[in-house]
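Example 3.2
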Amino acid sequence: MKKLLSTYFYLFMSLLIATIIGFAFGPNLAQTMVYPSLRPPLILYLHAAVSVAWVLLLCVQVSLVRGANLRLHRQLGQFGFALGISLPILGIATEIAMNQWHLSQGHSTNPVFFSISLNDMLSFSIAFGLAMWWRSRPEYHKRLLLIATCCLTSAAFARLHFIVPSWWFYFFVDALIVLAMIRDHIVIHSVHRVYSIGLPSLVAGQILAFFLCFQKPEFWVNLSQFLLGGAK
């Protein structure tokens, strides 16, 4: 077991995340994006393509490390850097565009929910940025990239209503990181500081996002309306 976790854990996690995202978005893909009754903004397609490319690249990169093909791993890392920079920008821009699109169709929106997307993109950006900063330290680099990718799964878990209770999606995001912490405990007999610092930091951001979303302090209502538009 210890050898398997040491050798294949990150490959397993990358495939698990890809499966979760595919399982969450795949069934409604034709209805929402391929053959929609009303075509959504183009930026939604771009955001989806970049997100899928990120997850697929993670699977490839982990496989390359396992195969000791570090040269190609570093070359593809340049593409990964471009994707990582693009993801949070596209994520925020897509949220704004979709909110305005729904308003144009006469649908009501709740801009305060923007705190959830903003937290996810900010958490991804911090983890990704630190992973790039410590790219010469593999034990930090790989764990930070895993955390960054886990941050992208909240939207997927939120769509799995038959598995995930309402508003419990962050619990499942954090559970992915807990799996990594358990792996560390088994393999290296301690939890790496990336996880011991990273998970509490993520939880703090999630609590703040929920506070802004549900308590609706005036400053956040005004700011979210300014950024997104729409009624309270």
